Amino acid sequence: MNNKIPFDISKFSLGLISATIIVLLLKTLKSIFIPLTFALLLTFLFAPLHRFLSKKKIPPTFTIFLTVILIFLGFTIVGIIVYSGASSFVTEFPKYEKQMVSLFQDVLFKLNLPQAGVKEYISKIDLNIILQKLSISSVISTTMGTFVDFLVKLLLTIIFMLFIIAGKEDFIDKFNSNSSQHYFSQPDVIYQKIESQVNKYLRNKTLLSLLTAVLSMIIIGILRIDFVIFSGLLIFILNFIPNFGSIIATLFPITICFLEYRFGWQLLTATITLSSLQFLIGNVIEPKVQGNKLNLSPLIILISLIFWAWIWGPVGMVLAVPLTSAIKIILNEFESLKVISLLMSEK
User: Residue 317: which of 77, 34, 29 has the closest Cα?
Assistant: First the structure.
């Protein structure tokens, strides 16, 4: 008796071609798909607020207007902080640049390395030209260009979100009315699963990242390390990247501390306290708060980080976990693809 599962080469080939086309579209049209993805995630994040206001008989128009105002204000504040932090960093850059050159020469001297060739190479570098390229005027113009691009993407995200909120119910109802013709269960059930998991992940991750950033800023401020606000912002954003984000987040303030105080007690204190804080929140508090609801394998998380980083760069790394979780839920609804969903699971 033959118990082997028949292998349909035509379906496999069609699926492989479709997946390749989708990946290429995501990569090529990332300027459109990134705002669209943020719009979807923000819709999930604000869904509880929308339901609460709906129960209070608040008009949907006012609910949408309030959501847009909150999003625009939040992202604008973040953009202003990034702009101010980057400008202040470049303003102080010459001081740290000179310290790095001095430190490099000291290392060569202590290691008894031949400095003649190195000094000749360094002497050929015109530091004035480098500093002119990093002047405040050029940096401000470049930063403003980036800031305008940020506002355009923010506006596009808000527009996408308005259309998603306005058409969500009708879209799901149309699918539900023809659910017998689909290969998966009720679309509203799938949507609720995705919304529940993504909402919980984003909400808890945002609060934990904010807690980590605030406590880190307090430590950095007490130790009188420069760029307190900018360091806190980096820690907040990079903590959304699993595994590697927390490590990269602490490197910036520790590096600045090293350039300021060298091997003083401040460096040792900053390294121990910031690393311990990241370990405590990331490995003790976060697992208890988040639980295992996402049920994603650590290997899958690592692979998704690499994949989405290749597709969308650093933004893809931030979005990797919620996107992979949503894909896993959708795959689980197809009988032929449940095995893939199972392989993606931690348990």
Answer: 34
What tokens appear for 210 in the block?
């904010």
Residues 282-340 pLDDT 10s? 888 888 777 666 677 888 888 888 999 899 888 888 888 888 888 888 777 777 677 77
Can you give the pLDDT at residue 146? 60
Residue type, 347: K
Q: What is the 3-class SS of 124-186, one letter each residue?
A: CCCHHHHHHHCCHHHHHHHHHHHHHHHHHHHHHHHHHHHHHHHHHHHHHHHHHHCHHHCCCCC
Give the single-character DSSP code of 293: S
Written as six digits, the tokens of 172 are 């799901």
- Those residues with Cβ within 8 angstroms of residue 241's Cβ, 6 or more apart along the chain or in another chain: 248, 305, 314, 317, 318, 320
pTM: 0.74
Count Cβ atoms below 10 Å from residue 119 Cβ, excluding itself.
12
Q: Which of 125-137 are b and which e, b meaning 16 or more Cβ less than 10 Å from the residue's Cβ?
A: eeeeeeeeeeeee
Task: Tell me the C-alpha distance between 245 and 242, whole Å.
Answer: 6
